[in-house]
Design brief:
527 residues, Alpha-Beta Plaits, two-stranded antiparallel sheet
């Protein structure tokens, strides 16, 4: 066969995965079907592994297919399926295009085995003890998701909103304004720093991130040492021109020794296309013992213009992200004084409770991106340090739609399991609590009732108070903790009614028959 075809096939597959997965996180119109999302994300290694450990179902064993592919062909996952790996290739390509000087060639370098295997071992150890914190911070798919959700998506939404404003002036309305709830600067710093690190590593040292920091890359690297099909250099045909070494973005080829470090090779096939003599081949080979790596060669000087390009790009991106965060439609508000005494955060439906949820979720933020009401927001320390960046229900930002199960249908790692709509409508995420001292009926002696009006189960209802006034009361047996009451409450900064989360999700009683009839006549949530 013609080995040069391999790179074209790899690039084609990689582009499909990159474009589709990017679309999933940037789809602000929520038009991508769940079936396409689930099919495409099936082969993402860490989410698939976590889902398998949660469900023990072979239908969730996409990671096993990745391991089989690695045992056969090496780290094809890293080169053609992993979105963060493919994004690094895009950065490398863009860096070469923007360079004023001659293209930087790669050189064989010493592997950082102690570092990468220590990270892999520590990640596995922490995972065994029930925490996904290190996997959350290091998993390439989850990092890609956070970068696109919190940095790139606001840019896209900002461009959409600007275009919608211009078109609306021309009486064209096929584009419309999208509102995004602002994420705190502290939480934006985590994907921001990750993006800068990945970008800098990519344009200076190729796939250095994959071969030093990424635990998935380290694990698959161990397997790829003994893959059945591997790249090899035919000594009788090699002229020691060094082109294969220069083209290797993993810095794993020593052309002088005719040596390839298979644990770091990401199967990009650049070396095959660069070889003018056809000496680099991809064949079925017998497993051999990996030689001791040669000493590292001196690192090349970093181009100053490259630093400026990186700094300028990151500044522009973060600036556009800030501009794209649209504010909610203003609502009438009243000042309040009594803080909400929350004991527990509220975790999403399908999670069964935050104890299980925190041990499974890797904070890829796909559920945050596809939530139609924006109620899912990244956590800081609401779950504790172990739950950093995992999504929580923020009822100041939105509410959980009574008729929606979208987040449970697209979670790739089993942290949120599918819920039927009727089951979700009776899942009690938490219970609403009323603070009379904050309620404007009590403080302003005026009518309100916004919380009761928007409660989908009528767990919040109005009872006589003073004179002709009525005040909220909560029936906690039918409350499902959706947060519609809290979101609708006009008091700030503290709400007169708030939802305290259930550590373990419970089953609420169904509403009375007369309440069901009222619910069916309700209009959509107006905010």
């Amino acid at each position: 066969m013609k080995y040069t075809v391999l790179k074209n096939v790899r690039v084609g597959i990689a582009l499909v995965f990159l474009l589709l997965i990017s679309l999933f996180f940037l789809d602000f119109r929520l038009e991508v079907p769940e079936e396409l999302i689930n099919t495409t994300l099936y082969l993402q290694f860490a989410p698939s592994l976590m889902k398998f450990l949660t469900t023990l179902s072979l239908a969730s064993a996409g990671f096993f297919i990745v391991m089989i592919l690695t045992a056969l062909f090496g780290r094809v996952y890293c080169s053609a399926i992993c979105p963060l790996g493919i994004l690094q290739d895009v950065f490398i390509r863009l860096s070469n295009l923007f360079k004023k000087k001659k293209k930087r060639w790669n050189r064989f370098s010493r592997p950082y085995n102690i570092l990468r295997y220590a990270i892999l071992g520590l990640t596995a150890l922490v995972l065994i003890f029930g925490s996904t914190l290190l996997l959350t911070l290091l998993d390439p798919y989850s990092n890609f998701g956070r970068i696109f959700t919190y940095l790139f998506k606001p840019v896209v939404v900002g461009i959409n909103n600007a275009a919608a404003g211009l078109l609306n002036n021309l009486n064209l309305y096929f584009l419309y304004r999208i509102d995004l709830y602002p994420v705190s600067a502290g939480l934006l710093a985590i994907p921001g720093v990750t993006l800068v690190v990945v970008f800098a590593m990519s344009v200076t040292r190729g796939r250095l991130f994959c071969n030093t920091v990424c635990p998935v890359g380290a694990l698959l690297g161990i397997m790829s040492r003994y893959s059945l099909f591997r790249i090899r250099i035919e000594p009788s045909e090699c002229t020691r021109c060094s082109l294969c070494e220069k083209a290797c973005k993993a810095e794993c080829i020593d052309y002088k020794a005719g040596f390839i470090d298979y644990s770091r090779c990401v199967a990009c096939f650049n070396c095959i296309n660069s070889c003018r003599e056809g000496a680099v081949k991809f064949d079925l080979v017998r497993p051999v013992k990996t030689p001791v790596a040669a000493e590292a060669k001196p690192a090349m000087a970093v181009d100053g213009s490259k630093r400026k390009f990186i700094t300028g790009s990151m500044a522009w991106l973060l600036g556009m992200a800030g501009a794209g965060l649209a504010q909610d439609i203003p609502r009438p508000t009243k000042k309040s004084t009594v803080p909400e005494p929350r004991n527990h955060p509220v975790c999403p439906p399908g999670s069964s409770g935050f104890t299980v949820f925190n041990k499974t979720c890797t904070a890829c933020s796909l559920c945050v991106s596809v939530c139609p009401t924006g109620v899912l927001q990244p956590s800081f320390l609401e779950y504790g340090l172990a739950g950093l960046l995992q999504p929580r229900m923020d009822y100041h930002a939105g509410f959980c739609n009574f008729e929606c199960t979208r987040c449970t249908e697209i979670c790739p790692n089993g942290a949120l399991l599918p819920l039927k709509l009727e089951e979700k409508k009776l899942t009690q995420l938490g219970i609403a609590h009323f603070i009379k001292e904050n309620c404007i009926v009590h403080t302003e002696k005026t009518d309100c009732g916004a919380c009761s009006e928007h409660c989908p189960t009528k767990a919040v209802h109005m009872v006589p108070y003073e004179g002709t006034l009525v005040i909220p009361e909560v029936n906690d047996t039918i409350c499902i903790g959706c947060g519609a009451c809290e979101y609708a409450c006009p008091t700030v900064p503290y709400k007169a009614i708030f939802v305290d989360g259930n550590p373990l999700h419970l089953k609420a009683d169904p509403p009375a028959e007369e309440e069901k009839a009222k619910i069916e006549l309700e209009d959509d949530f107006p905010f």
